[in-house]
Amino acid sequence: MTEIKTLADRIEDLLPQTQCTKCGYAACRPYAEAVACGEANYNQCPPGGEEGVARLAALLGKPVIPLNSANGVERPRPVAVIDEQVCIGCTLCMQACPVDAIVGAPKHMHTVVAELCTGCDLCVPPCPVDCISMPPVTGEATGWDAWSQPLADAARERHNRREARLAREREAAEARVAARRSSAAATAATNAPAGNVSTPAASPASIAGNADAEAKKRAIIQAALERARKKKEELAAKGQAPLNTEQVSADVQLQIDAAEARRRRLGLTGTGAEQLADKPADEPAGNPPPSTPASTRNPR
């Protein structure tokens, strides 16, 4: 049977599939659909560059126009590199990568599979210790000259597989939550006639053990943040800064907010390790303040 492609399908076929969100949409497919229905212009894809605009203009029967600078600039393709000495294994970069090009495990060093990286920059903003750099790897070649159709097709396939996996994981998580609630309700109904049972107070030894564990955790994070602070100072002295801080999807922004909330729970309300150093080791972390809504933060 001959496949009948919609206009959005044909537009998507011409996009580089970096899934970088620089166009202002969550991925290449939503952008293609927005262009097809006239909600977005066809010059909003920096990775495609001037050639990408020309491809879309030819398909749509419209004139070639300059790339919209508000979405970014055409540039050599970068590849993410993780500093192993600074990485704390928080997994936020793995969660942000749209093509599953980062591998690792919680509390262990992560690494980037360079052959799979699309250079989207999305792993940079969520990193709480700024251990990811984006060096260019294509010399003077930019846009489609730094990319290829086979690479684009492979990136789209990995992105689609990732989206399907995340959907399965969400469904499984929802099913587990529903099962736990059902079990808790059944248990409460069974134990209701027995009356309330008082909970024994925690022993002093247990309280001391928890305080020691919390102090050790804060000390480990303090060391990591101190390394990150020194690296930030070195990068600032060189005039370097994180990339793609103006175009971050809502999902990635939620991950950044969650990381900041975790740091607040540990007493790290600022970005420097010196605040932690001033906090007594045996002082319990207080309740975190409400997370700042993504809409009032840097729009990225």
Q: For the CA atoms, what is the radius of gyration?
A: 24 Å
- What is the H/E string? HHHEHEEEHHHH
DSSP, total strands = 4
Q: Please state the structural category.
A: mainly alpha
Strand order within the widest beta sheet:
1-4
Q: Give the low-confidence spans.
A: 269-300
Span between termini: 44 Å
Number of helices in the DSSP assignment: 8
Mean pLDDT, nearest integer? Answer: 81
Beta-strand proportion: under 5%
How many strands, what sense, and barrel or not for the largest sheet? 2 strands, antiparallel
Helix content: 40-55%
Shape: globular
Pfam families: Fer4_21, FeS
Biased composition (Low complexity): 184-194
Keywords: 4Fe-4S, Cell inner membrane, Cell membrane, Electron transport, Iron, Iron-sulfur, Membrane, Metal-binding, Repeat, Translocase, Transport
Domain 4Fe-4S ferredoxin-type: 78-107, 108-137
Topology:
Blueprint: H1 7-13, H2 28-36, H3 49-60, E1 81-82, H4 92-96, E2 102-103, E3 111-112, E4 132-133, H5 149-191, H6 204-237, H7 250-265, H8 273-278
Helix pairs in contact: 1-2
Biased composition (Low complexity): 184-194
Pfam family, one: FeS
InterPro entries: 4Fe-4S_dom, 4Fe4S_Fe-S-bd, 4Fe4S_Fe_S_CS, Elect_transpt_cplx_RnfB/RsxB, RnfB_subfamily
